[in-house]
Design brief:
The structure is a homodimer. Chain A is an alpha/beta fold. Chain A contains 15 helices and nine strands.
Chain lengths: 324, 324
């Protein structure tokens, strides 16, 4: 997760040349290069296309920017009327640079390295669209969901369609696995989780499966706690990505019998390195490595991460793989 | 949770007079008044003393301030040597205004309204002390915990002692129930949860129980997911407060057989009001109201909350109580 990014000096260098963060996402040459940077340093099993979950509202006509040190800033949508202004016209054309980047990466990747496409889930994207950026309590998104369930459902449904389209198009452009990130699933009140996270993800996954039956789909409903089990029960999902808060023992007992699991080293261990990282990684591998498992972090790589710690982590995981 | 606060015009009025947020906490007349404000409006079963979890590092000599719109700002502690500067001298004198406020509130409260004292848990307080305020990823606190477990353990242990002292002194001053808030428990990597959240809370609770066997203790390890069960298994804890992400059905099956549970309406329902709030509150009551249960929110009241919605929620809960 976030294997390309600010912790790599070559990324920071290219970022300067590219101008804005969105220019980086929408210029295929840049996006290809940034996607490949970590692969040149580390013997990773997969590359994840460099993009952002907010290309979806952007492609529908919402203003999206990225402010250094602050994160994404959107012109917030707060009313049903504003939903009418969201357009699916020209969606594919807008996204074309992303698909060209996927084709470019696939051409350069070794055959045994998988290419991963992704999208945000409807709830998580909706929070950014409604709050106008990151949020702590999501007051506007939640209020809309509670007080106007019909129009909120309409927004979720619009997003489902665009997300499914986007994932299918990424597969057509070379993605061999897709991930759906519901990063703020844990902020939903429990009574809304099925309606606004589990079911939308299930519908998106079913549409993607219908178009590409052989492409695995991983869902990451971050911080959803015991409710990870609801996602694991979905037929259309092949894998569940787990956050750092969930113990590997619980994952092995509750999720791994149903699905491939992915996770869940806290990115802080990658910042710390040394024995602490090694012990934490080995314990996760020991607990989950006997079942269907993809070693990964529980959240994205953070900018403070020394690249040599990533290299060491790759060695630890490879050694485990070779020995088992 | 946060029943006194910015959503009340009389609070905002008094806040202006008091000067800083800490002046409000440390001036007994103000703290008494602010604690009682919600009780004058709403027929609540309990009052929670108006204070802050950061009075503990402040009492140990760390600089603590509150910046409007930004939250707490502390001079961060990042090394073992800085731990030596933390002092327990004069702790009780520093906290005396808090204890005087508790006595003042107890005098004014009706006999059938309980007075609640509280403290933050060691991990949550440590994050503020080390990051110097709120944080998204807790990079410094986690790095310290990973790379220097001995000195991090020393900080946790210092905090345990001060927190236990503070809770016992609050009970001596009239608190009839105490809560321990581990608001960022969900950010801990799973492998650290027992060491830095469950065990410290257990040790604090045991000390408080030894001093005051009849005073109930509620723990709130927010967003700890399936691991809420670890806290529910603790002998020294009487109740578990649950966040909004956990379904009432799971709570009824997994936690309520072991402990009194408290929770877990999302504060967003209190912002929305009307039917949405009513249905959500009634569903929680229907699911949990037959076992040992304290109706509460899953997190603090937010400033956007219309006070009349709080009044309506009190009616809904009272009607349920009267009918059952």
């Amino acid at each position: 997760m976030r294997q390309a990014g600010r912790y790599l000096p070559e990324y920071r260098e290219l970022r300067k040349k590219a101008g804005s963060f969105l220019d980086l996402c929408y210029t295929p040459d840049f996006a290809v290069e940034v996607t490949l940077q970590p692969l040149r340093r580390f013997p990773l099993d997969a590359a994840i296309i460099f993009s952002d979950i907010l290309v979806i509202p952007h492609a529908m006509g919402q203003e999206v920017g990225f402010v250094e040190g602050k994160g994404p800033v959107l012109s917030p949508i707060r009313s049903e009327e504003e939903l009418d202004a969201l357009s699916s016209d020209g969606f594919t054309e807008h996204m074309d640079p992303v698909y060209r980047a996927l084709r470019g990466v696939r051409e350069e990747l070794a055959d045994d390295v998988a290419l991963i496409g992704f999208a945000g889930a409807p709830w998580t994207i909706a929070t950014y669209m409604i709050e106008g950026g990151s949020s702590r309590d999501y007051p506007n998104a939640k209020k809309w969901a509670i007080t106007q369930p019909e129009s909120f459902g309409r927004l979720i449904s619009i997003l489902e369609n665009r997300i499914a389209d986007h994932l299918i198009a990424q597969i057509e452009a070379g993605a061999q696995l897709v991930q759906i990130f519901d990063s703020w699933a844990g902020a939903l009140p429990a009574r809304f989780l099925t309606r606004y996270s589990v079911s939308p993800i299930a519908r998106i996954a079913s549409r993607v499966k219908a178009a590409a039956p052989d492409v695995p789909i991983i869902a990451f409903p971050r911080l959803s706690g015991p409710a990870y089990r609801e996602f694991a029960a979905l037929d259309s999902i092949d894998g569940i990505s787990m956050d750092q808060s969930i113990s590997p023992d619980w994952i092995r007992q509750e999720i791994q019998p149903l699905k491939t699991v992915q996770g869940n080293l806290d990115p802080a261990f990658l910042v710390a390195g040394d024995d602490g990282m090694e012990r934490a990684a080995r314990d996760i591998l020991a607990s989950l490595g006997k079942g269907p498992f993809i070693f990964n972090l529980g959240h994205g790589v953070v900018p403070q991460t020394p690249p040599e710690h990533v290299a060491r982590l790759c060695e630890i995981v490879s050694e485990f793989g070779a020995a088992s």
